[in-house]
Write a structure and sequence with these properties.
The structure holds 2 protein chains of 2 kinds.
Chain A: E1 2-7, H1 14-24, E2 28-33, E3 44-47, H2 68-77, E4 82-85, H3 87-94, E5 101-103, E6 111-119, E7 135-142, E8 146-148, H4 151-159, E9 163-168, E10 187-191, E11 197-200, H5 218-232
Parallel strand pairs in A: 1-2, 1-3, 3-4, 4-11
Antiparallel strand pairs in A: 5-8, 6-7, 6-9, 9-10, 10-11
Chain B: H1 5-10, H2 15-25, H3 31-40, H4 43-46, H5 51-54, E1 64-66, E2 73-78, E3 81-89, H6 91-96, H7 98-114, E4 119-129, H8 135-155, E5 159-166, E6 175-185, E7 200-205, H9 215-218, H10 239-254, E8 258-263, H11 268-280, E9 283-287, H12 300-305, E10 311-316, H13 321-330, E11 336-342, E12 346-351, E13 354-360, H14 361-364, H15 380-384, H16 397-406, H17 414-417, E14 428-430, E15 437-440, E16 447-453, H18 456-461, H19 463-480, E17 484-493, H20 500-520, E18 524-530, E19 534-535, E20 538-539, E21 543-552, E22 569-573, H21 585-591, H22 603-618, E23 622-627, H23 632-641, E24 648-652, H24 664-670, E25 677-681, H25 686-696, E26 700-706, E27 710-715, E28 718-724, H26 725-733, H27 735-744
Parallel strand pairs in B: 4-5, 9-12, 17-18, 24-27
Antiparallel strand pairs in B: 1-2, 2-3, 3-6, 4-6, 7-10, 7-11, 8-10, 9-11, 12-13, 14-15, 15-16, 16-21, 17-21, 19-20, 22-25, 22-26, 23-25, 24-26, 27-28
Classes of the chains: A alpha/beta, B alpha+beta.
Chain lengths: ~240, ~750
């Protein structure tokens, strides 16, 4: 199992994602520079957080034109698992791999804090190791994380079960206060219709070790390992 | 242009200084040369008023790898690694333009760290504002915090701690002191030195504009009504450019193609060229026509003095140019060759081949003017040190406690640190607000605990003692985390040094810092001096800020502020104190007074306490530890409950307070006697801890227990505070947010 971690100029959670999958999870991982189209035979791709290209113009707006995104788009079209975290999620939105857009946080300020999200769907490559309804504790760190899409799009997302994570209280309830940034329908993370491309604003890679406050985020990466094993090996051949 | 007294005044140079320039050059300077001298001899770059005092600070120690004089200091943290760190001020720009002033302060200190070859892994800041009851104060606080966040978050260096204080004296002159720490293998430390005649000199980074010209000179003058018009002298930061520079420079440093490197901070190209040449005993010759410029028609004077941000100067081994250029190209940066190293020891500046400046380097650096300015004990002290408590009537302890908890200097700073990415790089073991900011060092068992502290009220009342207390408090804070203090950096924020009273405060404070650092075995490896912090002739409170680095051998044994479990014993380490209220937050917040004498400090006892705290953490005895500082014992106890969901019940002996019997309770609860820490310990380990304390000569007393949802404090058995924890915590947690919410409504 090998993860490709895409490095854009201005990515700053690339080391953290690498550390989580390589040193905590023990999978293979390789950083891929944004000017390369080749994903080096990776089984899953992570678009990490940060400020790609300074987030100038609009978050993710320039990054979508990096050569690596052609490789990512092809990989996704072939059903490969792609995870966009924070800025990576914003890039997936700009690239049209996921629907909707990000607005500034309701507070109009950058917010870095622990939040709770509820797993809404377990049939994606990044939530297969979770239960539906499971509450995960992970940090957010963003200024533009208020998810927005028109009502029809939201309806379609709900109808196709594409909302993967929602902001909730510790007890798993959706509430205004538990929604840190004013996202529509408390959406913290989504998948595409094919379910292989997942984006979320919270940082699972920052929540992989108890010493850092939570290890709940590890489930996303473990899910990917499981999903890839399921794709590449005939059912029942792996323990 | 003739150089007359008006020209000299505009350049902040005296007639005597001009005479020295004539002597150094043996002729009249060109205007470009005059500009170069003016910035290099400014207070900001030359430390001409403070240098004689700073020389007395202890800078050596067995762990010191780099003392003052380079871009930052460095200490050995074991395992072949060095911690590189420094604190710097960006006060003047932050008043004029809070967001950019603070942002570029962060950018500047990060450059200082990676210039040494270290990857920056933690930021802290120490901020001072006027009251946030006023819109102007809130605007400055919001702008500065957003600027720090905007830069630090984007570049991906976590802000893991800091402090914010408020006093009217900062209303027209806020303080923005930023600390950065990086880590590098000790053998890979890079120095800012130029050598090897014929080696090429490269410029890389942002283009040069007219921003920031004479920034260093501005930071060396007082503010008056016209200061708002100085806005063009404040630079604009580009954290994305700096992120590219950071990664590219670290990559270049991993080759051995580099001779030396320095960032262009204060005094820009001028400072970097002459300092690099001077350190290496070499000269540098550049042609400013090769300097990338973003504005047209810039003169050599403007190019040399510009303080445009995110620019670096590199000296590369001849023959290795292509390798270095290739690395920068990969990051879409263009390294431009602007000159070469010479053997002349001179800074020679050409403009399209024509010489516009030719100056002996040393006359700009080591031989810059040094002043032993007159000092005089200020007249205010005699009165300010008297404190007639018997003329005051104290409110009830509970009332005073609520007022202290809601005072912005003591209240939770969540509104502030929530805007900082304090987790990026996934090393943060103790986040802001939970104790000394602590980051683990990946691939080692170690961690570093960091704290920045300063109590200007104490310094105002007794500069030497206040400075000793600042060192002790910063060191005690990292010791509370279980870390051994191993190095410090200081930022000295004072008024106009040409006033003998201000100079006295500075001299006394430096003496106090030296005393405490020697006694606590914490060398000072560098720092920064910010003078002329005055507006319309009124100086700020004298504010030395200490940044202390502590080393934890076992990252997993770090100790944080909140209580951890119900039924734990609460122990006061360090003794009851003498109920000292002089200069306390209690007097300021409850009685509106800045009076009295700061608390006594026994440095040997302080050292013993700190070593005991390190031992207590290493042996896993202490489950929480919190330093007694602002607000005294009562605030420390209650803060230990916050974020834990655990109340407490304690019984304390009341202080004697013979002069003012009515103040026995406030003195016990809110007095700020030094060298005290509240720890919690598993009941099974209580005797062990008390025995170790006794062996170490540290007074220790079990005062009560954790648990429940109520805070009950007794004095000599009499209940004086009996409040629901949730109610106290609400007052503390939302005090700053409430002040901003009121304005939004």
């Amino acid at each position: 199992m090998k993860f490709a971690i895409v490095v854009f100029p201005g990515s700053n959670c690339d080391h953290d994602a690498y550390h989580a999958v390589r040193h905590v999870l023990g999978a293979e991982a390789e950083c891929v520079w944004h000017k390369d189209e080749d994903l080096r035979g990776a089984d899953a791709v992570v678009l990490p957080g940060g400020f790609a290209h300074g987030d100038y113009l609009r978050t993710g707006a320039i990054a979508r034109f990096s050569p690596v995104m052609r490789g990512v788009t092809r990989f996704a079209a072939a059903g490969g698992p792609v995870l966009g975290i924070c800025n990576g999620f914003q890039i997936l939105l700009e690239a049209g791999l996921l629907p909707g857009a990000m607005l500034r946080n309701r507070s109009l300020r950058f917010q870095c804090e622990q939040v709770h999200v509820r797993v809404e769907q377990s049939d994606t490559p990044f939530t297969g190791a979770c239960r539906i309804g499971q509450v995960l504790r992970m940090p957010i760190a963003h200024g533009e994380g208020s998810y927005y899409a028109e009502a029809e799009t939201i309806a379609r997302l709900e109808a196709h079960r594409q909302v993967v994570f929602r902001y909730v209280t510790g007890a798993g309830e959706v509430s205004g206060e538990a929604n840190p940034n004013g996202s529509v329908a408390a959406i913290a993370g989504l998948c595409n219709e094919a379910r292989n491309v997942v984006g979320l604003m919270p940082h699972p890679e920052r929540a992989c070790e108890l010493a850092l406050g939570s290890a709940d985020g590890l489930a996303l990466f473990e899910s990917a390992v499981r999903a890839v094993a399921g794709r590449t090996a005939p059912a029942g051949s792996r323990v | 242009m003739a150089i007359d007294s008006a020209v000299l005044e505009r350049h902040g140079l005296t007639q005597d200084e001009y005479a020295r320039i004539l002597e150094a050059l043996g002729r009249e300077p060109t205007l470009t040369e005059l500009g170069i001298y003016s910035v290099m001899w400014s207070e900001h770059c030359s430390y001409k008023s403070s240098r004689v005092h700073l020389k007395t600070l202890p800078t050596a120690g067995s762990r010191v790898l780099q003392g003052p004089g380079e871009n930052a200091g460095a200490v050995d943290i074991g395992g072949g690694l060095a911690a590189v760190f420094k604190i710097e001020s960006h006060n003047h720009p932050s008043f004029i333009e809070p967001y950019q002033g603070a942002a570029t302060g962060v950018g500047g200190i990060i450059r200082d760290i990676f210039t040494m070859g270290a990857r920056p892994i933690a930021l802290l800041n120490s901020l001072r504002f006027g009251s946030i009851e006023h819109a102007a104060g809130r605007r400055l606080l919001a702008g500065v915090v957003a600027g720090i966040a905007g830069y630090g978050n984007s570049i991906g260096v976590p802000t893991v701690g800091g402090e914010v204080e408020f006093d009217e004296s900062y209303a027209g002159n806020p303080l923005v002191n930023v600390f950065c720490l990086g880590v590098v293998p000790a053998r890979d430390i890079v120095l800012a030195s130029a050598s090897g005649a014929g080696n090429p000199v490269y410029y890389v980074g942002a283009k040069t504009g007219r921003d920031g010209i004479h920034g260093a000179t501005m930071a060396s003058a007082e503010f008056d009504e016209s200061s708002a018009e100085k806005r063009p002298a404040v630079q604009v930061g580009d954290p994305f450019m700096e992120k590219l520079l950071l990664e590219a420079c670290l990559e270049v440093m991993r080759t051995d193609a580099l001779v030396g490197i320095q960032d262009m901070g204060a005094a820009g190209l001028t400072c970097s060229t002459c300092e690099m040449g001077s350190r290496g005993g070499a000269g540098i010759e550049i042609d400013v026509a090769h300097v990338p410029q973003r504005e047209t028609g810039m003169t050599p004077y403007e190019i040399m003095l510009s303080e445009s941000q995110e620019r670096m100067l590199l000296v590369v081994h001849r023959g290795r140019e292509a390798e270095v250029e290739r690395i920068f190209e990969r990051w879409d940066l263009h390294a431009v060759r602007i000159g070469e190293v010479t053997a002349t020891g001179r800074l020679r500046v050409l403009h399209r081949g024509e010489v516009v400046a030719d100056i002996p380097n040393r006359s700009l650096t080591d031989e810059a003017p040094v002043y032993r300015r007159p000092i005089r004990e200020p007249a205010y002290l005699a009165d300010a040190r008297t404190l007639a408590l018997d003329t005051l009537s104290p409110p009830s302890p509970t009332d005073a406690l609520y007022r202290l908890l809601a005072y912005p200097g003591i209240a939770s700073k969540r509104w502030v640190y929530r805007q900082y990415d304090h987790m990026v790089r996934t090393n943060t073991l103790v986040p802001p607000g939970m104790g000394a900011g602590t980051v683990r060092i990946k691939d080692t068992p170690r961690a570093l605990a960091l704290s920045v502290d300063g109590n200007a009220r104490f310094v105002y009342l007794d500069p030497a003692q206040g400075a000793r207390l600042a060192v002790a408090e910063a060191a005690r804070n990292v010791a509370c985390a279980g870390a051994l203090p191993i190095g410090a950096t200081n930022c000295l924020n004072f008024g106009n040094p040409e006033r003998p009273e201000i100079m006295w405060q500075l001299a006394q404070a430096v003496e106090g810092i030296g005393d405490a650092c020697r006694a606590l075995d914490i060398p000072i490896t560098g720092g920064n001096v910010s003078l002329y912090n005055e507006t319309d002739g009124r100086a700020i409170l004298p504010t030395p800020v200490l940044g202390v680095v502590g080393l934890l051998e076992h990252a997993d044994r770090v100790v944080s502020r909140p209580f951890k479990a119900a039924g734990d014993a609460i122990v006061l380490l360090g003794g009851w104190g003498d109920g000292e209220l002089g200069g306390s937050a209690y007097l300021k917040v409850v009685h509106g007074l800045l009076r009295g004498r700061p608390p006594a400090l026994d440095l040997a006892r302080e050292r013993a306490l700190q070593l005991l705290l390190v031992e207590g953490a290493t042996e896993r005895l202490c489950r929480s530890a919190h330093d007694c500082s602002e607000g005294g014992l009562a605030v420390t106890l209650v803060e230990s409950c916050f974020d834990s969901g655990l109340g407490l019940e304690v019984d304390l002996p009341a202080a004697s307070a013979p002069d003012a019997p009515a103040f026995r309770e406030p003195a016990t609860l809110f007095g700020e006697s030094a060298s005290r820490v509240v720890v919690s310990v598993d009941a099974a380990h209580l005797d062990g801890l008390l025995a170790r304390a006794a062996a170490a000569g540290v007074p220790a007393a079990a005062i009560g227990w954790t648990g429940g949802d109520v805070v009950r404090i007794r004095l000599d058995g009499r209940l004086v505070v009996d409040e629901r924890l949730a109610s106290l915590e609400a007052a503390w947690a939302t005090a700053i947010e409430r002040r901003f919410a009121r304005t939004a409504a």
